[in-house]
Amino acid sequence: MAPETSGELKLTVNGEMRRIAAGATIADLVESLGLNPQKVAVEHNAEIAPRSTLADVALADGDVLEIVHFVGGG
Amino acid sequence: MTDTPAATADTWTVAGRTFTSRLIVGTGKYKDFEQNAAAVEASGAEIVTVAVRRVNISDPKAPMLTDFIDPKKITYLPNTAGCFTADDAIRTLRLAREAGGWDLVKLEVLGEARTLYPDMRETLKACEVLAKEGFAPMVYCVDDPIAAKQLEEAGAVAIMPLGAPIGSGLGIQNKVTVRLIVEGANVPVLVDAGVGTASDAAVAMELGCDGVLMNTAIAEAKDPLRMARAMKLSVQAGRDAYLAGRMATRRYADPSSPLAGLI
């Protein structure tokens, strides 16, 4: 692994390692992944991140996010 | 086909929401989203169960269930399938509420993978927490009238005993306990799991259940659309038979034609 580049955050998103520019919010991350924030729910470090606050919450290095949606099920 | 006025007026209500269809269908195991949507349509269901899973962030443009079954027209009932602890189920439903914006949910906490039998200790624990957080949990449970009462006390808005193990298609195994649950409940009772074919759904309804929830019986039929329609009709037939009040049984024959006037 390359040493930490300043200005970039390392995140775990749905179990995968992702990088994003420092200062990014949860909304920035969701959009950068090509997802519609209206169709997903986000858990940020094991806490629900309400949709209305996604643009206000800044990400920090090492944050763990789960992004879920509805799929077929019984 | 037109319904009789009596049948049209026969609605049921869960957590303040009123529905006409007494059939709830799952959205798993279908060949594709098109077939799934067509089966929902054919079943006449107004509620579908859905699961909550990670978005595939490597393929965010993959088709989504919500593109095929409109949550504005059909009530999505998020489930906790695959959860084996109260904490996992609660976490899943908190996310579901955030994803969907509604609090009517299906709680199921499983005890083991082989039988998918509910773990009632964890289920009760989760039900209490969810009710306190403002959720309206419809709860998958064992076919045990005592457990059903305990769930109701814990805030369950519907009791959903299994008829047989999930996905088994074995039909209603214990009609006595299902009837006892129906008689003791002050909230709707729906058989959830075990229905294999149309007559099984009719049996559940004839026992006085408010509805039936199924997935595999439709999804794994050779013709899912036709089975969806069969289930719609059998749920209606079973409901009507229950309301009509069946005849008493006799030990021996009783002729239907008059004995008088025989030549």
From TrEMBL, chain A:
InterPro entries: Beta-grasp_dom_sf, Mopterin_synth/thiamin_S_b, Thi_S, ThiS/MoaD-like. It comes from the Bacteria. Gene3D superfamilies: 3.10.20.30. Pfam families: ThiS. This is Thiamine biosynthesis protein ThiS. The lineage of its organism: Bacteria, Pseudomonadati, Pseudomonadota, Alphaproteobacteria, Sphingomonadales. The gene is thiS.
UniProtKB/TrEMBL annotation, chain B:
This is Thiazole synthase. Catalyzes the rearrangement of 1-deoxy-D-xylulose 5-phosphate (DXP) to produce the thiazole phosphate moiety of thiamine. Sulfur is provided by the thiocarboxylate moiety of the carrier protein ThiS. In vitro, sulfur can be provided by H(2)S. Residues 14-258 form the Thiazole synthase ThiG domain. Keywords: Cytoplasm, Schiff base, Thiamine biosynthesis, Transferase. Pfam families: ThiG. Homotetramer. Forms heterodimers with either ThiH or ThiS. It is found in: Cytoplasm. The active site is at residue 106. Belongs to the ThiG family. Coiled coil: none annotated. Pathway: Cofactor biosynthesis; thiamine diphosphate biosynthesis. InterPro entries: Aldolase_TIM, Thiazole_synthase_ThiG, ThiG. 1-deoxy-D-xylulose 5-phosphate binds at residues 167, 193-194, 215-216. It catalyses: [ThiS sulfur-carrier protein]-C-terminal-Gly-aminoethanethioate + 2-iminoacetate + 1-deoxy-D-xylulose 5-phosphate = [ThiS sulfur-carrier protein]-C-terminal Gly-Gly + 2-[(2R,5Z)-2-carboxy-4-methylthiazol-5(2H)-ylidene]ethyl phosphate + 2 H2O + H(+). CDD domains: ThiG (cd04728). Its EC number is 2.8.1.10.
